[in-house]
């Protein structure tokens, strides 16, 4: 087990996927009725995969910890979904989307997977329109597009600021149809606690009913992990509170390699932290950077006056504002990739130019866009010499039509009207590019165990471009996994039902019960949140937007000590055999305390800067990321060996035959 064979097909890049689909084995419809598949997670990746597999004829079981698949965190995605349809006629193509994604990921992703993603992206839009997803349309009735960071074209399809919600409703509707047909059995309020491996193959899971506390056994011929990312190990993040790494980490402990854990995305457009009371952060969509201009005061005394409440941002003259992204990156301006924009904001705030009370915020200003749109609308409405009030009113109407729900959300949280005063934003943890290692077929190093969407590592390299998460989740679920899983399952048509009374299921269930009992037996000195917050602070301070050797070594030591203290002293009230949300949290934080150390180990081992992984020792004179393609042009896949510090590194060398490796430049 554990040989890193990516199984990338031979031949020209643009023909690999078509050739592969023509050559892999298929399962005929009559045999599909006898094959069971488990899907863990029902967001865009899991929901679309479950619906498609059931439509093909497989018997599917889905598991989610929410009370409905509709409540998956995919619902929170705001800005849009990418596809290379070139509706704008601005030069987009499959190759351009492929190139932008590889470059945006700082040349740390697999060429073949990313090209396939670009190739099937157009199908996603057709699928979702057919499902009734209400994408925005332009004046003539055609689908509209907008731009996101790191690209020079408009390829992002969107539904106001609710794109994730609308796409998830489409996938959920497709799931629901299969549930009513009896092809999907939906297990809500269930959490996967372990993977069951029989004769080297994934054959089922152990799950806990979160309402009754009952431990259940579920068997299948293949298991699909679609449970999202692990960013909540930072405690404060834009993830939903329940997002965790348990399904992926249990799979890792059973033999699946975990790839690039240190590749974590910091999103530049988040509402700043307001105090110790917070348990999560709220994102403002990257789409706002289409029209919002990011700035800080040019003078330190002005920044200080704003922080002290003596000066309002609207009172600062244009010549006294530093539009630092436009200044540093003239070609891309405010639409540089997320990692670049995040580091630039941190640099300005660290230099003393931050604008909120904590000094950790910059402005996102829509005054120019309101004036521009207002003037345009006045002329198209026949108003030749509009006054300032008319221009502002008309401009605000345009902005409201494009971003209204986002502005409303900001005002509810911050109690400031973003139409009248600039938004305040600051970077925050948003997405994880690392995850379970998968081959071209999306299979992990455990045969029969697949990973799709954010839970795998495959498509985004060291930095994800905006609007590509929804693209990958839906591509994996609708258009990739349903093909590739058949190649594996074609060898299982005579296997028959997988029994759940085997020694392997017995052992897996015993391991789960022992772990729950151990969690309940702590001395009770501190709450689960006490440990989660401590871990989050270590991660943000020493493994966050910038890292260095000294801090990473300290982080590994401190996390190991915190984990030891957690198992001895955590307080989990209630019992394991009933509804117990503190026990749920404890299990998740226990996993965070393991992956946090592996995260630091991976970051320490990678002596270069690339994308979201910024090592202070490796930067250009201008403060940009400095890659080392000679020594680190590989995927770091870690094998579980007990303690995270003992994890064994396996390398998948990345080969670039169609793209020339260059220093990323957005200037």
From TrEMBL:
This enzyme's EC code(s): 1.3.5.1
GO BP: anaerobic respiration
Membrane topology of this protein: Peripheral membrane protein
Entry-linked Pfam families: FAD_binding_2, Succ_DH_flav_C
Occurrences of domain Fumarate reductase/succinate dehydrogenase flavoprotein-like C-terminal (ranges): 532-666
Keyword Isomerase in record: no
Residues forming coiled coils: none
One example GO MF annotation: flavin adenine dinucleotide binding
Swiss-Prot/TrEMBL catalytic activity: a quinone + succinate = fumarate + a quinol
Subcellular compartments: Cell membrane
Gene3D superfamilies associated with the record: FAD/NAD(P)-binding domain (3.50.50.60), Fumarate reductase/succinate dehydrogenase flavoprotein-like, C-terminal domain (1.20.58.100), Succinate dehydrogenase/fumarate reductase flavoprotein, catalytic domain (3.90.700.10)
Alphabetized SUPFAM superfamilies for the sequence: FAD/NAD(P)-binding domain, Succinate dehydrogenase/fumarate reductase flavoprotein C-terminal domain, Succinate dehydrogenase/fumarate reductase flavoprotein, catalytic domain
Key words of the record: Cell membrane, Electron transport, FAD, Flavoprotein, Membrane, Oxidoreductase, Transport
GO cellular component, one term: plasma membrane
Enzyme active site: 338 (proton acceptor)
Cofactors, names only: FAD
EC class of the enzyme, as a word: oxidoreductase
FAD-dependent oxidoreductase 2 FAD-binding domain sequence ranges: 36-470
Main location (coarse class): membrane
Family that this chain belongs to: Belongs to the FAD-dependent oxidoreductase 2 family. FRD/SDH subfamily.
Protein name per its UniProtKB record: succinate dehydrogenase
Gene: sdhA
């Amino acid at each position: 087990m554990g040989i890193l064979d990516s199984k990338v097909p031979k031949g020209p890049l643009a023909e690999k996927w078509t050739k592969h689909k023509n050559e892999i084995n298929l399962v005929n419809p009559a045999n599909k009725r006898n094959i069971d598949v488990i899907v863990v997670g029902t967001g865009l990746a899991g929901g679309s995969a479950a619906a498609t597999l059931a439509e093909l004829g497989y018997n599917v079981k889905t598991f989610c910890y929410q009370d409905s698949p509709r409540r998956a965190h995919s619902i929170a995605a705001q800005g849009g979904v990418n596809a290379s349809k070139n509706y704008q006629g601005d030069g987009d193509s499959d190759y351009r989307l492929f190139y932008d994604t590889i470059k945006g990921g700082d040349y740390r992703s697999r060429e073949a997977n990313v090209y396939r993603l670009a190739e099937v992206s157009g199908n996603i839009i057709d699928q979702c329109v057919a499902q009734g997803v209400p994408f925005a349309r332009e004046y003539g009735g055609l689908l509209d597009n907008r731009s996101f960071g790191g690209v020079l074209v408009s390829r992002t399809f969107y539904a106001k600021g609710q794109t994730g919600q609308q796409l998830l409703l489409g996938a959920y509707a497709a799931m629901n149809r299969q549930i009513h047909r009896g092809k999907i059995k939906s297990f809500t309020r269930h959490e996967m606690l372990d993977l069951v491996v029989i004769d080297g193959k994934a054959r089922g899971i152990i799950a806990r009913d979160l309402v009754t506390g009952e431990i259940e056994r579920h068997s299948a011929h293949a298991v699909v992990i679609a449970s999202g990312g692990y960013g909540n190990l930072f405690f404060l993040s834009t993830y939903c509170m329940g997002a965790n790494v348990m399904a992926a980490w249990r799979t890792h402990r059973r033999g699946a390699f975990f790839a690039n854990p240190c590749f974590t995305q910091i999103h530049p457009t988040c509402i700043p932290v307001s105090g110790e009371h917070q348990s999560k952060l709220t994102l403002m969509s990257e789409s706002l950077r289409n029209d919002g201009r990011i700035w800080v005061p040019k003078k330190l005394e002005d920044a200080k006056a704003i922080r002290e409440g003596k000066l309002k941002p609207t009172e600062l003259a244009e010549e006294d504002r530093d539009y630092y992204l436009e200044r540093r990156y003239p070609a891309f301006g405010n639409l540089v990739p997320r990692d670049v924009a995040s580091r630039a904001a941190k640099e300005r705030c660290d230099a003393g130019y931050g604008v909120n009370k904590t000094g950790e915020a910059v402005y996102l200003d829509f005054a120019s866009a309101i004036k521009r749109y207002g003037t345009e609308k006045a002329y198209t409405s026949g108003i030749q010499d509009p006054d300032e009030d008319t221009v502002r009113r008309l401009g605000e109407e345009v902005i409201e039509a494009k971003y209204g729900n986002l502005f409303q959300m900001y005002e509810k949280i911050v109690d400031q009207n973003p139409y009248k005063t600039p938004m305040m934003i600051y970077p925050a943890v948003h997405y994880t590019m690392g995850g379970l290692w998968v081959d071209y077929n999306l299979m992990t190093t455990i045969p029969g165990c697949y990973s799709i969407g954010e839970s795998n590592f495959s498509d985004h390299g060291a930095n994800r471009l905006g609007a590509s998460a929804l693209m990958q989740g839906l591509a994996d679920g609708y258009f990739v996994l349903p093909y590739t899983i058949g190649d594996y399952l074609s060898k299982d048509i005579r296997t028959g039902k997988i029994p759940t009374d085997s020694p392997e299921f017995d052992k897996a269930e015993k391991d789960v019960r022992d772990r729950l009992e151990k969690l309940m037996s702590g001395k009770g000195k501190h709450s689960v949140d006490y440990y989660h917050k401590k871990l989050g602070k270590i991660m943000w301070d020493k493994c966050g937007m910038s890292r260095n050797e000294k801090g990473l070594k300290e982080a590994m030591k401190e996390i190991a000590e915190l984990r030891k203290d957690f198992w001895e002293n955590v307080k989990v009230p209630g019992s394991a055999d009933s509804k117990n949300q503190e026990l749920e949290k404890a299990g998740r934080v226990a996993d965070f305390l393991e992956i946090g150390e592996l995260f630091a180990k991976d970051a320490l081992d990678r002596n270069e800067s690339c994308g979201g992984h910024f090592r202070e020792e490796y930067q250009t004179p201008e403060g940009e990321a400095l890659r080392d393609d000679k020594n680190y042009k590989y995927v770091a896949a870690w094998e579980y060996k007990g303690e995270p510090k003992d994890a064994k590194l396996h390398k998948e060398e990345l080969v670039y035959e169609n793209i020339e490796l260059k220093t990323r430049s957005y200037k």
